Amino acid sequence: SQTIHQWPATLVQPVGSPLSLECTVEGTSNPNLYWYRQAAGRGLQLLFYSVGIGQISSEVPQNLSASRPQDRQFILSSKKLLLSDSGFYLCAWSRGSGNTIYFGEGSWLTVV
Amino acid sequence: GQSLEQPSEVTAVEGAIVQINCTYQTSGFYGLSWYQQHDGGAPTFLSYNALDGLEETGRFSSFLSRSDSYGYLLLQELQMKDSASYFCAVRVMSNTGKLIFGQGTTLQVKP
C-alpha cells in the first residue's frame, strides 16, 4: 500500500530564517506531488505541483520554492520566512491520471 | 480566475440529513471531489464525480450537474463524528490530480 510522510510536524521559526519541509511517498512510482497551504480556518491553496523529477510548477508567486530531487521526494523551502508564511502545509500525491489526491499528516508552521 | 463557492457553516442535529452545495467556475473541469477534514487533521477523500448524477457511498452521496456547474454532498443519518470541515474541489487538468479547493464548509452536528 502507498503511504506519504512529511516532517517536521510542527515548527516555530523566526522571521527571516530559512525553511525546509520534506515529504516522501512510499509504495508507488512516478507519483504527481503537491504542496498545499492552509491558513487558519481557510481553504487549501495549491502552491506547487510536480509531475516528475525536476519538474516543478508554481501556482502562486511568493518567497517559497519547491524541489523534487528524487522520484518520491518533494521539498518545500524558503530562504527568508515572512510572518504571512505561517500556516498548515500539506504535501499530497496522486497517480498521474488518478482522480484522488492523498494528503500527508501536515506541518504546522508558525513564524514569529 | 477560478472560484468555488460553498457555504461557510452548516448546523444540524444527530440523525438528520444535510446538503452542502458547491458551485464552481474554473478554466478546466475533469471532475468534482469532496474531502473531509477534522480539526488539526489532514483532508481525507470522500467522493468523486466526473459525470452527471448521484454517487452513493454509505451515508454519504455526491451529486454533479456539469451544465449548472454545481454539485452537492449529502450526508444522511448524521453522527457527532461527522462534525468537520467539508471541501469541494475541482480537478482542472486531465493528466494530473491537480485540484482547486473551495474555502470549506464547517458542519456542526448537535445532539
In short:
With 112 residues, chain A is an all-beta fold. Chain A contains no helices and eleven strands. Chain B has no helices and eleven strands.
Strands, helices and their partners?
The complex is a heterodimer of chains A (112) and B (111).
Chain A: E1 3-7, E2 10-13, E3 19-26, E4 32-38, E5 44-52, E6 55-58, E7 64-70, E8 73-78, E9 87-94, E10 102-103, E11 107-111
Parallel strand pairs in A: 2-11
Antiparallel strand pairs in A: 1-3, 3-8, 4-5, 4-9, 5-6, 7-8, 9-10, 9-11
Chain B: E1 3-5, E2 9-13, E3 18-25, E4 32-37, E5 44-49, E6 53-57, E7 60-65, E8 70-75, E9 84-91, E10 99-101, E11 105-110
Parallel strand pairs in B: 2-11
Antiparallel strand pairs in B: 1-3, 3-8, 4-5, 4-9, 6-7, 7-8, 9-10, 9-11
How would you describe the overall organization of this protein?
- The complex is a heterodimer of chains A (112) and B (111).
- By secondary structure, chain A is mainly β.
- Helix content of chain A is 0%, strand content 58%.
- In chain A, strands 2, 4, 5, 6, 9, 10 and 11 form a seven-stranded mixed beta sheet that branches. In chain A, strands 1-3-8-7 form a four-stranded antiparallel beta sheet, with no helix packed on it.
- In chain A, strand 5 and strand 6 form a beta hairpin.
- Chain B is mainly β and 111 residues long.
- Chain B has strands at residues 3-5, 9-13, 18-25, 32-37, 44-49, 53-57, 60-65, 70-75, 84-91, 99-101, 105-110.
- In chain B, the strands form two sheets. In chain B, strands 2, 4, 5, 9, 10 and 11 form a six-stranded mixed beta sheet that branches. Chain B has a five-stranded antiparallel beta sheet with strand order 1-3-8-7-6, with no helix packed on it.
- Chain B is globular and about 40 Å long.
- Chain B starts with a strand and ends with a strand.
- The model of chain B has no long low-confidence stretch (mean pLDDT 94).
- Classes of the chains: A mainly beta (112), B mainly beta (111).
- Chains A and B meet through strand 4, strand 5 and strand 10 of A and strand 5, strand 9 and strand 10 of B.
